[in-house]
Amino acid sequence: MTEARGPNGTTHAWHPPGTPCWASLMVHGMAATQEFYGALFGWEFRSGPRPLGRYVRAVLNEQEVAGIGLLPPDGQLPAAWTPYFASGDVDATAESVRSCGGTVAVGPLDADEAGRLAIVSDPMGAVFGVWQAAEHLGRGLTGVPGTPAWNELFTYDAAGVAKFYRTVFAAGREPVVDDDPDDVVLRIDGRSVAGIHGAGPALPRDRGPHWLTYFQVEDVDRAAERVAALGGRVVRSGDVTAVGRAATVADPEGAVFAVVSRLDRPIG
Fold first, then answer.
1. What's this model's pTM, rounded to 2 decimal places?
2. Second CATH level (architecture) for the domain 11-133
3. Which InterPro entries does this chain map to (predicted)?
């Protein structure tokens, strides 16, 4: 990442194209969701752009780390976290998504003066965002509790879908284990930026292929207990992953995410 001066005078980092640069949550109840994540991660909130409706940015140590937006009131879409990947030209990236067998669901469109975005899905149906920065460069803080730490794609076939991301974002790939094609790490400029896990028939039928966002915490067990105490639930606990010890949890609206400690893998 290279440093750049943000519009409010603070120093932020430009995220190289192809690296996760933001995480956004879409929910039905903004007030209750802000209360939950504020209590869990210590986030405060400020207003963000409104290209798709009401939107706030989560702030930690005066840096923006994630976003929360309001879903349409029809109640058809579930609450979910979506990772955004940086792009130097979101229109070109969206066209590449289409040509590689993916789908462009929203955009590309301008988010006020903050930047330009698209919401897309890969050929297996996993949803992610693409962000072309203008005034808003993406997350401004990593490596401390309460910040996004890692993103992992759970899909049917890791090796097959990795070709899609490698083409769209010019991302290299490395197996986590040399003889296991179902665990792949995407790399940009030599840095590990995201994981792909091929679960095959073990993939949960109620979710299908999906991206999971990990947030760093000091203690996974305490964080999982805190999630439950705040009205969420623990989906899976005590996993030892390539990036540390993790638990998969869900907030009160059912949006699934993970908490991780002892982060071992450098992130983009």
1. 0.89
2. Roll (3.10)
3. Anthracycline_SecMetBiosynth, Glyas_Bleomycin-R_OHBP_Dase, Glyoxalase_6, VOC_core
